[in-house]
């Protein structure tokens, strides 16, 4: 991590042993990939083509079946659910009947080794390393914290957050769940009374409201990971297992400059969602029974029998009419399944845009192509405009249900939020680099002390 603009560190260094590991990781990756392809050909011959077709077909049928589960009711939904289970079992049975299941499993294992070692080799060159600049600032003298005792199933009480914060000199406002309070108004009152830091122990929706006040008043903001999912805290690299560790920032902390998103004038630290999900969370029954409510509402929403017809533009570029649109404060990772739902950066100054448009089972199966799928839009933008065929649309802002007048303008305030975090914290897991086979071939062929630092492959 950088400190006040210090230059980022390089890759693995310059010692020959490190470069040797790099070269051999690349070579192992290429060898494992070659064996993964050759193994079915050697043991199955021309039938290897059939193995591939059957496997891809099974994946397509499974994806289509899931679409039918989401868009049908009653007997049709049950039948689709059964097909979603039977399709992969049928593929496995097909392989096993021809005594080729072990070939497929070993081939998949080799492919996993190829990807793992290949990414390790690419990462070792410093590829994708994103330094985070930390700013040393004086510890706050009059911090003010808002805590929701019900958030995260009672984490405030379970971890003794109020008591620890007060021992560290903070003034704490404990919300009364039975009497809703305006947290933004509380934050404004605290700032007027001389608070030099605002913080929240609660969900992301509450975090966003107080964060906007901190930006408006030019104060640092403290995130305490006492919510249920704590997406914002996770992307800040905070300790989500022990929210009390976040309070260490009051005495031994540094500041990060991060962006803040807005949907019209409503702030969000994570995202604003439109379409199917936003409509589902509006239902009064959603809080009590999320699964049943979702399954009950989705058929009409996904088949456009209910809900608004969205019209969206990202920096003036039209997005195909989506059933669901997610606008995030910085883009989410999309090329790493293990990192889905995470953001590598919170200071890119760009909104992430994810739109899904699926009209039939074939298009649902096509989503298996990832970013290349016709029904999927993945991009970044400085501004997103969402209009509709009605005057008001449902929006989920950091998980909170709202109804906003159209057009809804989503924008981002670059570096507007000063977040104070503990100096010692888990950090954000590094993004896995994309596989680049051409790059791996060159890394594997490099001789001596020349691998690290060469980034123009």
Question: Could you describe the 3D structure shown?
Answer:
The protein has 457 residues and is α/β, with parallel strands linked by helices. It is 39% helix and 22% strand. It has 13 helices and 18 strands. The protein has helices at 16-44, 47-71, 74-97, 101-123, 155-158, 161-167, 183-192, 204-217, 231-235, 276-282, 290-302, 361-366, 437-445; strands at residues 2-3, 133-134, 143-147, 171-174, 197-201, 221-224, 253-263, 266-268, 271-275, 310-314, 317-319, 324-329, 351-356, 376-381, 383-388, 392-397, 400-405, 408-422. The strands form 3 sheets. Strands 3, 4, 5, 6, 7, 8, 10, 11, 15 and 18 form a 10-stranded mixed β-sheet that branches. Strands 14-13-12-9-16-17 form a 6-stranded antiparallel β-sheet. Helix 1 (16-44) crosses helix 2, helix 1 (16-44) runs antiparallel to helix 4 and helix 2 (47-71) runs antiparallel to helix 3 (74-97). The protein is globular. Mean pLDDT is 86; it is low at 5-13 and 447-457.
């Amino acid at each position: 991590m950088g400190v006040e603009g210090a230059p980022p560190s390089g890759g693995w260094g310059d010692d020959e042993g490190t470069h040797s590991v790099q070269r051999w990781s690349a070579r192992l990756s290429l060898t494992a990939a070659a064996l993964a392809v050759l193994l079915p050909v050697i043991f199955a011959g021309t039938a290897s083509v059939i193995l591939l077709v059957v496997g891809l077909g099974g994946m397509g049928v499974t994806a289509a079946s899931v679409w039918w589960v989401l868009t049908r009711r009653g007997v049709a939904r049950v039948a689709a659910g059964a097909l979603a289970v039977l399709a992969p079992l049928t593929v496995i049975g097909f392989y096993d009947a021809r005594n080729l299941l072990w070939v497929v499993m070993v081939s998949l294992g080799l492919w996993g080794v190829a990807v793992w070692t290949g990414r390790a080799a690419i990462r070792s060159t410093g590829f994708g390393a994103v330094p985070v600049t930390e700013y040393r600032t004086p510890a706050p003298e009059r911090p003010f914290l808002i805590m929701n005792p019900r958030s995260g199933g009672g984490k405030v009480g379970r971890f003794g957050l109020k008591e620890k914060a007060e021992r560290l000199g903070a003034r704490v406002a404990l919300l009364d769940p039975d009497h809703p309070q305006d947290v933004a108004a509380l934050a404004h009152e605290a700032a007027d009374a001389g608070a030099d830091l605002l913080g929240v122990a609660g969900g992301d929706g509450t975090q966003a409201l107080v964060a906007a006040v901190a930006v408006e008043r030019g104060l640092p903001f403290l995130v305490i990971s006492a919510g249920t999912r704590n997406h914002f805290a996770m992307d800040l690299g905070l300790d989500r297992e022990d929210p009390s560790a976040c309070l260490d920032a009051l005495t031994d902390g540094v500041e990060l400059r991060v962006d803040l998103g807005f949907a019209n004038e409503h702030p969000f630290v994570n995202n604003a969602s439109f379409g199917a999900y936003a409509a589902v969370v509006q239902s009064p029954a959603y809080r009590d029974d999320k699964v049943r409510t979702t399954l009950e509402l989705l058929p009409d929403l996904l088949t456009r029998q209910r809900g608004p017809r969205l019209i969206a533009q990202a920096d003036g570029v039209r997005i195909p009419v989506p059933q669901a649109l997610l606008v995030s404060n910085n883009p989410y990772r999309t090329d790493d399944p293990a990192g889905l739902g995470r953001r590598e950066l919170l200071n890119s100054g760009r909104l992430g845009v994810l739109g899904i448009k699926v009209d039939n089972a074939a298009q649902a199966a096509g989503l298996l192509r990832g970013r290349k799928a016709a029904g999927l839009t993945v991009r970044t933008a400085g501004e997103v405009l969402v209009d509709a065929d009605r005057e008001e649309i449902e929006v989920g802002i950091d998980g909170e249900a709202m109804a906003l007048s159209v057009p809804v303008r989503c924008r981002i305030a670059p570096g507007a939020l000063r977040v104070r975090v503990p100096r010692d914290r888990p950090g954000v897991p590094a993004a896995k680099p994309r596989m680049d086979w051409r790059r791996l071939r060159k890394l594997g062929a490099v001789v001596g002390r020349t691998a690290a630092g060469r980034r123009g492959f």
